[in-house]
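Input (structure):
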């Protein structure tokens, strides 16, 4: 009983941290460009993950991995953190925070669609209904409730937000097959991803002394989006009697995020955003009975 209470505590802490990062993205992008934010955030996450590996006495695991494992980590590092966060941060730079946040939550639906060609999964009527409901929610958010207008507020930004969901789904599909230690895998992903991030900054941006507020925001993102919160979430899953008892708490994250966005960023939350998000989550809930779905919700909010 005590372990289950601890599981809930860790899960709630993770949900609260993840509920703040969308606002941190938007505020940080006022002071840094996309690549600079990713550079400082990912560097911070590498330090955090290294310290966690050190304290958990798992650094030795890095010596046990084969060349094939390191090559796999390099490919995954290209997807996440490099490509995923470049696309996601770019979406946040174009869109309202509430739009980028909620559209990124379509990733479980993208996962379902990608599982058809990549995992040879067959989908039934329940999954088709889930897809329709979630994409209806995404459409409502994209047109801000003007259902008959077909007037998308920012087609480029919307495409990037949905694209980030596709990239995360691809990352999950290839990552779930890798049975290495989660923290060690994540650390290597960020090390290799950082190489791509560094090169991109040297070519397309510049590495300069950042504004204090931007640096503070990047460090916050590196710790609470890319680093320690994931470990806290894993801890909650391990302590819980069943993963379902804590994984359902993740559905609170986007709704809490909207509250934080309103209070911290100052955005007025649109009714269309709330309705669209409810439909997206409803589709995910319907989909969760899919055999591979439970694991996917355990890895990302």
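Output (sequence):
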């Amino acid at each position: 009983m005590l372990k289950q209470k601890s599981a809930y505590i860790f899960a709630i802490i993770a949900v609260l941290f993840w509920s703040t990062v969308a606002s941190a993205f938007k505020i940080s992008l006022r002071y840094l460009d996309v690549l600079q934010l990713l550079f400082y955030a990912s560097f911070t996450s590498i330090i955090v993950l290294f310290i966690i590996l050190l304290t958990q006495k798992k650094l030795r695991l890095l010596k046990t991995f084969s060349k094939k494992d390191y090559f796999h980590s390099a490919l995954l590092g290209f997807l996440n953190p490099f490509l995923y966060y470049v696309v996601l941060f770019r979406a946040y730079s174009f869109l309202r925070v509430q739009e980028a946040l909620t559209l990124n939550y379509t990733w479980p639906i993208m996962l379902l669609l990608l599982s058809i060609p990549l995992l040879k999964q067959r989908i039934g009527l329940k999954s088709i209904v889930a897809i329709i409901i979630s994409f209806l929610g995404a459409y409502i958010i994209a047109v801000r409730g003007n259902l008959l207008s077909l007037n998308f507020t920012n087609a480029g930004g919307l495409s990037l937000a949905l694209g980030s969901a596709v990239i995360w789904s691809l990352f999950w599909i290839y990552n779930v097959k890798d049975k290495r230690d989660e923290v060690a895998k994540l650390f290597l992903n960020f090390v290799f991803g950082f190489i791509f991030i560094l090169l991109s900054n040297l070519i397309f941006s510049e590495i300069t002394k950042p504004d204090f507020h931007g640096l503070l925001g990047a460090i916050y993102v590196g710790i609470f989006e890319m680093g320690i919160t994931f470990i806290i979430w894993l801890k909650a899953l391990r302590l819980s009697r069943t993963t379902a008892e804590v994984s359902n708490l993740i559905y609170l994250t986007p709704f809490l995020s909207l509250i934080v966005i309103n209070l911290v960023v100052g955005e007025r939350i649109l009714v269309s955003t709330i309705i669209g998000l409810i439909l997206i989550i409803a589709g995910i809930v319907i989909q969760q009975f899919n055999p591979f779905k439970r694991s996917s919700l355990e890895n990302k909010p």
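Notes: Residues 76 and 189 are 6 Å apart (CA to CA). The chain is about 75% helix and 0% strand.
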